[in-house]
Amino acid sequence: MIRESSQNDRRDHERMVKDQIERRGVRDKRVLDAMRKVPRELFVERHDREFAFHDGPLSIGHGQTISQPYIVAYMTEALAIGSTDRVLEIGTGSGYQTAVLAELAAEVYTIEIVEELSARAQKVLGELGYSNIHFRAGDGSLGWPEAVPFNAIMVTAAPDRTPERFLEQLAEGGRMIVPVGSGEQYLELLTRRGGAVERRELIGVRFVPMTGRIQKGEA
Ligand code: SAH
Q1: To test the ligand 1 pocket, which listed residue (156, 166, 187, 218) has its Cβ within 8 A of the most ligand atoms?
Q2: Closest ligand 1 atom, residue 65 Cα
Q3: 23-56 residue pLDDT tens
Q4: Is ligand 1 within 6 A of the CB of residue 210?
Q5: How many whole angstroms from 200 Cα to the centroid of ligand 1?
Q6: In this structure, what are the phi and psi dihedrals at residue 188, rounded to the nearest 5 degrees?
Q7: Which residues are catalytic?
Q8: 7-205: what fold?
Q9: Any idea what DSSP says for residue 41?
């Protein structure tokens, strides 16, 4: 059941957007509106609810984490998602980032390798009424070939190297953001233009490693 947000939640939620996200430089109004709208407290574990608006990642079980709110906003802004865009997300996790993407895009395709996490995210997002999210439980190492092309790809687990394969699934002008590296990690933003790919290195980050075939060098 969806619980009404408490007064404390509403206050902490607004502080999260103002102090952690706007103050650090995220300006895109559509992104800020989405960060205000999605009830983050529903995506954390029940016993962590009081920390839902905390300025950092939190455990969601299975050795995985829900990303820091600022990083969710930062990555979403970098992808410059338009309302007619089709978006691929690798690493559904809690489904929180998925909800933010679903607020901005036309369709979101999201893949999660841990079946229980995918099932939990499907339940929460279904209860919230999202009807533009397509779920897949399984290895996202090969992307989602049946649903190409995508205008944006958000990867929320870190492969050791840039996952070149995903670039083939981008439409012309499409953007991909991905944390890359095994020790030191940084965000890479790649834009497909004509036959070429523009590459920008953004900020340093810490994500859980990507698993599955990509990590075994098979994808
Ligand atoms: N955006 C999520 C982040 C979750 S952490 C959130 O904020 O909740 C990254 C997720 O990627 C984990 O749930 C992990 O299980 C998943 N993952 C790792 N490797 C994967 C792969 N090869 N395919 C699909 N999902 C993967």
Answers
A1: 156
A2: 5
A3: 999 999 999 999 999 999 999 999 999 999 999 9
A4: yes
A5: 23
A6: -110, 135
A7: 67
A8: Rossmann fold (3.40.50)
A9: G
